[in-house]
Write a structure and sequence with these properties.
Radius of gyration: 21 Å
Largest sheet: 8 strands, parallel
Oligomer: single chain
Distance between the termini: 36 Å
CATH superfamily: Aldolase class I
Strand order of the largest sheet: 7-4-3-12-11-10-9-8
Order of helices and strands: EEEHEHHEEHHEHEHEHEHEHEHH
CATH class: Alpha Beta
Low-confidence stretches: none
CATH topology: TIM Barrel
Strand content: 15-25%
CATH architecture: Alpha-Beta Barrel
């Protein structure tokens, strides 16, 4: 299995897990809040932050935008969607802040115009959301940019994934196991799919989690996830549809620390006697000592 290089970072077996803090729309339309979330990701030791980009009039129909929906931005769905969407000036500020803090950033793009928009910032990779996995036109638009792609596989059948991989190619592809429920039930995480995906597609595999808690994400790393993506929030009680399925800064810091420990603990799979065991062996073992 060949590693995929995200910027200067190789991603794959034998390399450190690439940890992504999904800011998504948890910034609630505020660049100041986005900066604070970026700072929290840096403080936790994450490798990258991710946003979401949509062209509102392309992604949503007129009927969807006119649907009544109360939010801090107004009384219909269009108010909410436009209120949460950053434009060029906001992303320039985000780009500058990430550069100043030394952290990579990229986005999941939901339409062709959004890909072109984000491409101007020369992202190290793209993320394709589970909802977009069956959009062949969008997949081809991503592939034409010739950047690494992280593809989430939630709400998708094996046949869906097979076809998406055929469209995208596997030269610079990372598949992310995912359950697309917010939050996800532990009973539906099915983490054993992670090694199955790696064996079937022979590409690096990661995990995009939406569950409450950290233990299952750590288990995903033990099962072979080489990328981990979790939503980040400053407070799970904040307004917003993704906040409840997110991790607060202290939790993200704990997750990063535990992932790095798991990386060391998993080892290389070669059975050996460690020098640290020798005193205990001399003291406790009975019977014939063999070299």
């Amino acid at each position: 299995m060949k590693p995929v290089h995200i910027g200067t970072r190789p991603v794959g077996p034998g390399f450190p897990v690439f940890i992504v803090a999904e800011i998504g729309i948890n910034h609630n339309g505020s660049v100041d809040l986005a900066r604070r979330l970026i700072d929290a990701a840096v403080g936790a030791g994450c490798d990258a932050v991710k946003f979401q980009k949509r062209t509102i009039d392309v992604v949503y129909t007129v009927e969807e935008l006119a649907t009544p929906r109360d939010s801090p931005f107004g009384s219909i769905n269009e108010d909410l969607k436009r209120g949460l969407e950053f434009g060029y000036d906001e992303y320039v500020k985000i780009d500058h802040h990430c550069r100043d803090r030394g952290i990579a950033w990229f986005a999941s793009c939901w339409d062709r115009l959004s890909i072109d928009f984000i491409e101007a910032f020369e992202p190290p990779c793209y993320k394709i959301a589970s909802a977009c996995l069956v959009d062949d036109e969008l997949l081809r638009c991503h592939r034409r940019k010739a950047r690494p792609i992280l593809l989430s596989t939630g709400m998708s059948s094996v046949e869906h994934i097979d076809h998406a991989v055929d469209v995208l190619g596997d030269d610079a592809l990372v598949l992310l196991h995912c359950t697309s429920a917010y939050p996800s039930s532990v009973d539906e995480l099915n983490l054993n799919v992670i090694p199955w995906l790696a064996e079937r597609y022979d590409v690096p595999v990661g995990y995009s989690g939406h569950e409450v808690g950290l233990a299952t994400t750590i288990a995903a790393v033990a099962l072979g996830a080489r990328v981990v993506e979790r939503h980040l929030t400053l407070d799970r009680a904040m307004w917003g549809s993704d906040q409840a399925a997110s991790i607060e800064p202290h939790g993200m810091a704990r997750l990063v620390k535990d992932i790095r420990a798991i990386e060391r603990a998993v080892g290389d799979g070669v059975k050996r006697i460690y020098d640290s065991e020798l005193p205990a062996r001399r003291k406790l073992r009975r019977g014939v000592q063999r070299t």
